[in-house]
Structures are given as structure tokens and as C-alpha cells.
Write a structure and sequence with these properties.
about 525 residues; alpha/beta; Rossmann fold; GMP Synthetase, Chain A, domain 3; 3 domains; nine-stranded mixed sheet; five-stranded parallel sheet; 20 strands; globular
Length: about 525
């Protein structure tokens, strides 16, 4: 566990909630630095000088069991404000002598109407009369702890917001961090500035100079190798390190043959000519297609693509004997997930998309300049570094590439068909001013063929599925509602211009229950 020193911060204690990352983002959006730690990390904490407030997250545990996740009671003696959310509220109530009961009759999932009972700094300019909030709990506080008072309630939860004003301890049963709660950011604003009295001191764009300086101090005159994919994360890492150490950075681009049409060549030319990066190209497309022959299981595909990528990168890195550092585009959510996985009950849905996670066994020291940042913050950094919008605001693209957008067997012909269909789709989104309104969009090939009629002749060809979702962070998503004329137009363009496709369908499933990618 490493904290940013000499920086005022809010510490978020993660009890395993699926949306803990959103709390950290909300805090940073308000101009305040935040970090996420586990309850175990908290017990090791010795210095509290720069901590201006604690936030306890929600989580799958219950304080009604004999053993439950908790925090040292000494935390409440530090005179540092505490704010509990969902499980965090229940934990506060439990530790201060309140009563919590599991109740199937009074469980709340989804929207609820919050009503005011008393004034509080926590709800200043927020709860004038009533508000729609997002609930997700089965346990409920049924007896108020001593010296606490109720601030707000819902029909099924009489103690929805509680506070101990003297000790500056607050708790809410709902989730102000999710977009489903109306103006939940105001609650965080009140906690930060009215209760914690913290000042705005965090802005992403101001971090560029610090990051470049830290890279210089760490790397000195040694060489760094970096896997450059052309995505925003690896691109920002490469530009940061290049500004710090110039020609001592070696970027390796591996062509898997599973990129979008023309994307690999565009990325190479851009970084070589515009940004003057030292780039080594490796064409491994034939090897990838050979290894993926007759492989239809999505998990096997991911492992083959990921392992082969790593093997090729390792082999290339050994050609440079004087390299001491490996650059990775690790983001803050990656670190949060790796920490919380030890203490939460989150289930594994599928292997991570990113095949760029390279092994530490390479005996190279890691350089991870983005490990404090969220994806939207990385884009702000990219803009400050002069990264072109085409890459900086590119939709998320999975590490295995088109390999997991071709359902079933992967062949050179199916790759060609999908590249052509996807190229038309993405360019039409850009042409119609829709691309930047969408979190992620792509075309996929389904593993079945259907009968069609073209020019009075029978066809038996592929189904092309189109997907486009709106989201804030990729954790939840809804399908994008296209105008009918756009759907009509894109269907006609793909079928008329891509040999091998005779049917186009649009996926109108949200996440959950589905995932954004098909595999």
C-alpha cells in the first residue's frame, strides 16, 4: 500500500462494492484527491496528517453475522469526518450501538423517494423537499445509535440518513455515487467542503509536469520498453515517457492481424512521424491466425491471444540487453480491483480484455505513470500532451481485438468481412456526429449463417451484429437509441458493400444483464 504523500486526500475504505470506483471518481471530479484502500490497509495506517475525511463504501457483507468486515474504533477518535454509504452506514450504526436487521419485507432495490426530517450540513442545497435515490440493500438500521439523529427517511427505511454532528459522523443507506440518484454529487460536495473543510487541489492537467519529473528521477539514463497498441492508455504512457527520457524509450508494436481496418498502419505512421517515437514493428498476424485455427471457445481465444502476445513481446525485449524498465498502462481501477479481489465476493465474469498486462518475471522494473488515474483522467492527460483526438477519444477496444468479436471460428476471410463492416459502421457514426455520444460501438460476426435473396438469387451468408452503448464508466450500460433512418442506412451500406453479409441486426440489451462485449 502506497499513498501519495504531502497531499490532502479523502480515503475510501472499500468493503467490496461493485461501485466503489465511482465514489473515488465523484470526489476527484470535485477537485479533491481520493484513494481507495481495503480495511486491512487501514489497520496498517500510521500517519493521518493529510487525511481530511473517510468514506466507507457499500459491500456484500452483513453486520448481522458473527464475523463481518469492520474498521478499528480508533478511527472515530481521530476527529476526522466519516461518511458511510449503505454497508458503511450499517457498520457505523453497529459500532455505535444501533440495531440492524435483515428484512425481506423491507428490502429496497432500485429507486426510492427520500424525504427530509431534520436539517444537516450533509443535505445542504440537496434535500429541499424530496429526492429520488438509488437503493440496493436487504439489511436496515432499525434502532438509532446513541447521540445520533435521523436526517431523512424513505417509506421502507426510516433511518436512511443519520448523523452524529458532534463527532462528524454521517451515514446514508442509498448510493449517492451512482447516476440513478438525483444530484448525488451535491452530497459529496457537502461532505468535502462543508464538513471536511478540504480545499480543491486536484486537477489532472496539472499532473503532467510532476509525472515527467518522476519518470526522469526513476529511469535516469536507463532504457525503457513499452508495448504500444494505439489505445489511449499505452499512447499516453509512451508520450509521457518520451518527453521524460527522449530516445531511451523503445516502443514495440505487435500486429496480431486482429485490429480494425487500416488502424495498425495509421497508428504506426502517427507515432513515428508526428511524435517521433522509436518504434519496432512486429508482424505476427499469420502466427495468431494459425494458433486460433478451429478455436471457438471465447476463454481459449483470450488465453491464446494474451499468451502469444506476451511471448512475442518477451522474445523481442531480450534482444535489447541494456533495457531495465518495462512501461505499462496500468490504471487506478486496475489497482482497486486487484486490492478488493482479496476481500470482496465479486465473481469472475470473464478474463480481462487487456492483453497488455505483461509479466513481472521479465525481471524488469515497472514504470506505471497512470496508476493513479481513471480512464477519463487519462484522456485529459492525453489532451495536455497533444495526443490527437482520434486516439485520445477512441472508444474502448479489447486487447484480443476482433478475435472476440468474431464468434465461433476465426479465419482470414471472417476477419476481412468484419473489418469491412466495422469500418463502414464506425465511419458512419463519425460522419453523422454520433461517435462521441456513444461510450463504445462495434460490429461483430455471429457464428451462424442465414438465407437471403440478392438479385433474385439465394444467398447463405453471415449475420453482422451492431452494438452501441452509452455509459459513464463501462460498469453499467444501456443501448444507444439510433434514429430509424440511421439504422436503415447503415444496414443497406454494409449489405451492399461487404461481400459475405446478408443480414444486419442491432443489439438492444443493456448491461446488466448482458456484457458490453459478446465474448
Amino acid at each position: 500500500m502506497q499513498f501519495q504523500i504531502n497531499k490532502e486526500k479523502i480515503l475510501i475504505i472499500d468493503f467490496g462494492s461493485q461501485v466503489t470506483k465511482l465514489i473515488a471518481r465523484r470526489i476527484r471530479e470535485l477537485g479533491v484527491y481520493s484513494e481507495v484502500i481495503t480495511p486491512k490497509d487501514l489497520t496498517k495506517l500510521k500517519k493521518f496528517n493529510d487525511i481530511k475525511g473517510f468514506i466507507f463504501s457499500g459491500g456484500p457483507s452483513t453486520v448481522t453475522s458473527l464475523k463481518f468486515q469492520s474498521v478499528p474504533k480508533e478511527i472515530f477518535e481521530k476527529k476526522i469526518p466519516v461518511f458511510g454509504i449503505c454497508y458503511g452506514l450499517q457498520l457505523i450504526a453497529k459500532l455505535f450501538g444501533g440495531k440492524i436487521k435483515p428484512s425481506k419485507k423491507k428490502r429496497e432495490f432500485g429507486r426510492a423517494i427520500l424525504l427530509k426530517k431534520n436539517n444537516s450540513l450533509l443535505i445542504k442545497n440537496y434535500l429541499i423537499s424530496k429526492k429520488s435515490v438509488w437503493m440496493s440493500h436487504e439489511d436496515a438500521v432499525v434502532k438509532l445509535p446513541k447521540n445520533f439523529k435521523v436526517i431523512a427517511y424513505t417509506r421502507d427505511s426510516k433511518l436512511t440518513i443519520i448523523e452524529n454532528e458532534k463527532k462528524k459522523i454521517y451515514g446514508v443507506q442509498f448510493h449517492p455515487e451512482v447516476t440513478h440518484t438525483d444530484n448525488g454529487k451535491q452530497i459529496f460536495k457537502n461532505f468535502l467542503f462543508s464538513i471536511c473543510k478540504i480545499k480543491k487541489s486536484w486537477s489532472v492537467s496539472s499532473q503532467k509536469i510532476r509525472l515527467i519529473s518522476e519518470i526522469k528521477k526513476t529511469v535516469k539514463k536507463d532504457k525503457v520498453i513499452c508495448a504500444l497498441s494505439g489505445g489511449v492508455d499505452s499512447s499516453v504512457v509512451a508520450l509521457l515517457i518520451n518527453k521524460a527520457i527522449k530516445r531511451n524509450l523503445i516502443c514495440v508494436m505487435v500486429d496480431t492481424g486482429l485490429m480494425r481496418k487500416n488502424e495498425f498502419n495509421y497508428t504506426y505512421r502517427l507515432f513515428k512521424k508526428k511524435y517521433k517515437l522509436n518504434i519496432k514493428l512486429i508482424d505476427a498476424s499469420k502466427i495468431f491466425l494459425k494458433r486460433l485455427k478451429n478455436i471457438s471457445n471465447p476463454e481459449k481465444k483470450r488465453k491464446i491471444i494474451g499468451n502469444l502476445f506476451i511471448n512475442i513481446f518477451e522474445r523481442e525485449s531480450k534482444k535489447y540487453k541494456d533495457i531495465k524498465f518495462l512501461a505499462q498502462g496500468t490504471l487506478y481501477p486496475d489497482i482497486i480491483e486487484s486490492r478488493s479481489s482479496t476481500g470482496s465476493r465479486t465473481s469472475k465474469i470473464k478474463s480481462h480484455h487487456n492483453v497488455g498486462g505483461l509479466p513481472r518475471k521479465m525481471k524488469l522494473k515497472l514504470v506505471e505513470p497512470l496508476k493513479e488515474f481513471f480512464k477519463d483522467e487519462v484522456r485529459i492527460l492525453g489532451k495536455s500532451l497533444g495526443l490527437v483526438n482520434k486516439i485520445n477519444f477512441k472508444h474502448p477496444f479489447p486487447g484480443p481485438g476482433l478475435g472476440i468479436r468474431i464468434l465461433g471460428n476465426i479465419t482470414m476471410e471472417r476477419v476481412r468481412i468484419l473489418q469491412e463492416a466495422d469500418y463502414i459502421y464506425i465511419n458512419e457514426l463519425i460522419k453523422n456526429g454520433l461517435y462521441n455520444k456513444i461510450w463504445q460501438a462495434y460490429a461483430a460476426l455471429l457464428p451462424i449463417k442465414t438465407v437471403g435473396v440478392m438479385g433474385d438469387a439465394r444467398t447463405y451468408e453471415n449475420i453482422c451484429l451492431l452494438r452501441a452503448v452509452t455509459s459513464e464508466d463501462g460498469m453499467t450500460a444501456d443501448y444507444f437509441s439510433f434514429p430509424k433512418n440511421f439504422i436503415d442506412n447503415i444496414s443497406n451500406k454494409i449489405i451492399n458493400n461487404v461481400r459475405g453479409v446478408n443480414r444486419v441486426v442491432y443489439d438492444i440489451t443493456s448491461k446488466p444483464p448482458s456484457t458490453i462485449e459478446l465474448e
